[in-house]
Design a protein that fits this description.
Structural class: mainly alpha
Distance between the termini: 19 Å
Radius of gyration: 25 Å
Helix content: over 70%
Shape: elongated
Oligomer: single chain
Number of strands: 0
Order of helices and strands: HHHHHHHHHHHH
């Protein structure tokens, strides 16, 4: 059985032995796939006249007059145009971000997983980042697409099932990094099997980085670039290695 303390200690050691390569791989992936998005905010200024009157008819007339002023001044049309522009921008961002996620970021995730998994045992090259583009690219894209789709669909039920599924399929990119020819169903099933009984412990492992994330915020992300991101990636790779060994010891070696 693995322990959180052992995984993090092993990860620290491996990152220190190959520090700058680990930083570069984590940084490239973060910039391309986790670097942020486009956010649009719209605000309005509302002016009103609060006049008390004993006559409800006068109040209705005042409301109608204010509405007419809005229409006459073109404010209503301006708000409609702003809404259309924001909706179009969001649609464009979605049409760009979704293919980028499917065809670029998902294969890169396989490469990142492979790099840090190999870093547990030796000195991998930065070129491992592009591994999936040269090895069964379509299969990797397909498997990770369905992984994301299943997590999304489970998230529609409630938030918690989506989180559970995300941990259940956490090992898929690592499995594809080891065996890129692994079929979609086989990779998902194998990840479920490896994470059985380990999902809660993996969640607690992630929560143990909360303090580091707070410090990262205080350093405006500098700590994340040069230490935290590689450290987290290496810890997750250490978890994969531990689960892989556990899986092997149980005599289930055929798929890995």
């Amino acid at each position: 059985m693995w322990s959180r303390k052992e995984l993090k200690a092993s990860a620290k050691q491996r990152v220190s032995m190959n520090h700058w390569k680990a930083v570069l791989v984590a940084l490239v992936f973060a910039l391309l796939c986790e670097g942020g998005g486009i956010a649009s905010t719209a605000g309005g200024v509302m002016n009103g006249v609060n006049q008390e009157d004993s006559s409800s008819k006068e109040e209705e007339e005042n409301i109608q007059e204010a509405y007419d002023v809005v229409i006459e001044d073109g404010v209503f049309m301006f708000l409609v145009v702003v809404f259309i522009i924001v909706a179009v921008l969001l649609l464009v961002v979605l049409l760009i971000a979704l293919p980028l996620k499917i065809f670029v970021c998902n294969p890169l995730e396989v490469g990142v997983s492979r790099f840090f998994a190999r870093n547990m045992e030796g000195q991998p090259q930065v070129k491992e980042l592009c591994f999936a583009f040269d090895h069964h690219y379509r299969n990797c894209v397909r498997a990770l697409f369905f992984r994301s789709l299943y997590i999304f669909l489970w998230s529609l039920l409630f938030f918690i099932p989506g989180i559970v599924k995300s941990y259940e399929y956490q090992m898929v990119p690592y499995l594809l990094g080891d065996n890129p020819e692994l079929g979609k169903d086989e990779a998902l099933a194998l990840s479920r099997e490896m994470m059985r009984g380990n999902k809660w412990k993996a969640f607690v492992l992630d929560m143990s980085f909360i303090g580091w994330n707070l410090l990262n915020g205080l350093t405006l992300g500098i700590l994340g670039i040069f230490y935290l991101k590689p450290y987290v990636c290496q810890t997750n790779a250490a978890l994969y290695q531990a689960l892989k060994m556990q899986h092997t010891q149980q005599g289930k070696t055929a798929a890995i």
